[in-house]
Amino acid sequence: MRRVLAHVLAILIAVVAQAQQDIHPDELKLKPDIDKAIARGVEALINSQFRDGTWGQYGNFRGGKTALCTYALLKCGVDAAHPTIRRAMLMLDDVQPANTYTVACMMLAYAAAGQTMHRERMGDLTKLLIDWQKSGGDYAYPDRTRDLSNTQYAALGLWTAQKYKIDVPVKAWRQLMRATMDYQAKAQRVKAPVTGKHTVKDGGKIYIAGFGYRRGQSPTGSMTTAGVSILQICKIGLGTSLGAQRKKVDRAIDSGVNWLGHHFAVDKNPGKTDWAYYYLYGLERVGSLTRVEQMGGHWWYVEGARRLLKEQANDGSWPGGGQLREVRTSFALLFLRRATSGKAPTTGAGGKRAAPRHLYAVGTAKEDVAISASGQQPLSIWVTGFGEALTKRHEQYGLRVVQVEYLDGDHIVGQLAGDPSKAWQFDAFLQRAPALARGDHKIRARIELLAHDVQPPDASAQKPAATPATETVLSPEMSVTIRDVFAPWMKDVARIQRVNLVVFKKTEATASSAGKTARNACDGQEGTQWVCAANDAEPSLEIDLGRSVGARQLMISQAGSRAIDIGLFDRITAIEVRINSSKPFRVALDPDQLAITTVPFGKVRKVRTIWIRIAERVSGRRKGQAGFTEIALSK
After folding, report:
1. How confident is the model at residue 24 (pLDDT cuts 50, 70, 90)?
2. How far is the C-alpha of 179 from the C-alpha of 173, rounded, in Å?
């Protein structure tokens, strides 16, 4: 029995020792910085989401970029019920994908959301991937030469389908595997890296073989990560059906990983001048799929994480021009989060609910009351402390709280009773306010105290004492922005994309200033807008549809389509609207600068021209500039 116990203990010690070797000590030291970087990156993605739930459109891949950003947020722990995810899903549900990248990213996003309601949709997407597989087994852009990048994303989509018990034919896996090996360059023998006191067998030589973007092209880092990932996914997909091909596939994988180690870099994409972040995410995928922590003696995760920590911008994103900013940020987050691994990562939220945390505070020792708050829905508010002068005035009997009220402007959002029979002892008076609307709020505390000279009640008195005197103190106003709320207009945005009657090829637009961009206000794109010149005192816009259409309502969205745009332009509070040649009428716009203001006509109305004048506004950071992202009509 003792021998058995000793043997078991030896095995456990060996397992622990191996586990310790599998994680670089610096990874644990970097964990707080990595977690902070992930949280900041998540905030940056959420703040850059457009009003319509998208992150814009990358090239012709409608829905692809939005699916990638959604997948990254979900893998970083943002809950599927978060308004950002719900808005994105509304948009994705309406997309009819036309390319491999979009389908695969949508599959990844739906799976990460973990909602069985998407299984039917995932089944339809899987059929597209199977139908689009070329006769040779690989994938391509529509009407273009096949390549390994498209093929990699197809493999990710098929792997996701199989994990959801959606049938993927064995034939599809076999063809995919064979096609991928055709992209691998001829193997070369090179000197193996020395690790500690040891090297490898076979005279210190190893075989390396990278993968190219197209057959016969020179290997690159990003495509070698793609080739290795596809082959490992095919092994998983085929399982016991792999048969005699297993050794050949294993050699291809090993030589691919060896190539990555031999050409290792984290500051560039080896063999390529661009797509370094795409390569890093591929490196994470290879490391997670093959369970390799070192490549060529390099700890890929630690070295990659250090680089990403260094390059993260002040706003939490990873910089990139044009449409690349959110794409790079997504790739960086997926790397840091070790997103491919099915196990809990060393860092990051680890799949726990991790909606971004919002912290607010106001009040100093020189002011009567200090308060703090955190969260979104609900917003938790509490008393942090009292000022020095107020505390000194009450030092004889202590601060005795009768009541605490939390106000949003003049509206009471919380009311708590105190216990004036005893002095305050750091009681928080925590209140959760669940019903605050989207937008900016001014929160303060109004606290009623027993007056400082009111003596404690005499327990031996025969009759009750008169109502004691009180005094009221106020905290400073605390600015709170409520963002993470799913507002009714968010559903309207998704609907507008389908039913907007303004978007015609013949639609024309003119404006009182910046006329060249007037058409942006009626092009159906949230990423474009019309903004008047700063010196335009009477900004106006007129849209001519070229024909009359029957509409029941007009929908207006202001310039600035993302959370980071709030306050950038003047906030429009009121407009004048004239339909055709009728008399103008006044419309008050929603105070939420991102919201859509809907103007019902009451009945179907024939509309050919829409004239809008900005009547009232509140100055933004670009003082004098205001305008519209979209003017829409619907039935």
Report:
1. confident
2. 10
- Amino acid residing at 144: R
Q: Encode pLDDT of 103-135 as tens digits.
A: 999 999 999 998 677 889 999 999 999 999 998
φ/ψ of residue 42, rounded to 5: -60, -45
What is the C-alpha separation between 86 and 79, in angstroms, rounded?
Answer: 10
Nearest CA-CA partner of 537 in 584, 582, 510, 570: 570
Angle at 297 between CA 293 and CA 298, to 5 degrees: 60
Whether residue 421 sits in one domain with residue 319 = no
Structural domain boundaries enclosing 552 = 489-634
CA distance linking residue 377 with residue 393, whole number of Å: 37
Kindly state the tokens that stand for 51: 């009003």
| Statement to judge: residues 173 and 81 lie in one domain | yes
Q: Of all helices (H) and strands (E), which one includes residue 349? A: none
What is the arithmetic mean of pLDDT over 491-511? Answer: 79
**Whole-prediction pTM value?**
0.83
What distances in angstroms separate CA 12 from CA 4, 15, 346, one per listed residue? 12, 5, 20
In a domain, 350, yes or no: no
- Residues 134, 242, single domain; the answer is yes
Contact 234, 180 (CB under 8 A): yes
Spatial CA neighbour of 222 closest among 260, 185, 250, 253: 260
Interstrand relation of 379-386 and 431-433 (parallel, antiparallel or unpaired): antiparallel
Burial 370-387 (b: 16+ CB within 10 A, else e): bbbbebbbebebbbbbbb
| 596 and 556 Cβ atoms separated by less than 8 Å | yes
Burial bucket for residue 179 (CB in 10 Å: 0-12, 13-18, 19+): buried
At 62, is the pLDDT very low, low, confident or very high (cuts 50, 70, 90)? confident
* Residue 246 structure tokens: 């297993």
- Residue 606: phi and psi, rounded to 5, are -75, 125
- Claim to verify: residue 293 and residue 204 sit in the same structural domain: yes
Q: Which two tokens stand for residue 435?
A: 């019903």
306 near 30, Cβ under 8 Å? yes
C-beta of residue 166 within 8 angstroms of C-beta of residue 123: yes
Helix (H, G, I), strand (E, B) or coil at 66: helix
Cα–Cα distance, 515 to 169 (Å, whole number): 56
The residue behind tokens 């009945």 is 603
Q: Say yes or no to pLDDT of 574 above 90.
A: yes
153 has pLDDT over 60: yes
Number of other CB atoms surrounding residue 514 within 10 Å: 17
Total structural domains within the chain: 3
Dihedral of CA 122/128/130/132: which sign? negative
Judge if 472 and 496 occupy the same domain: no
pLDDT digits (tens, 9 = 90+) for 237-253: 999 888 888 999 999 99
Q: What are phi and psi of 101, to 5 degrees?
A: -55, -50
> Residue 215 is part of a domain; what is its CATH number?
1.50.10.20
Expressed in percent and rounded to 5, the helix, strand and coil fractions of the chain are 40, 25, 40
- What is the average pLDDT score of the chain? 88
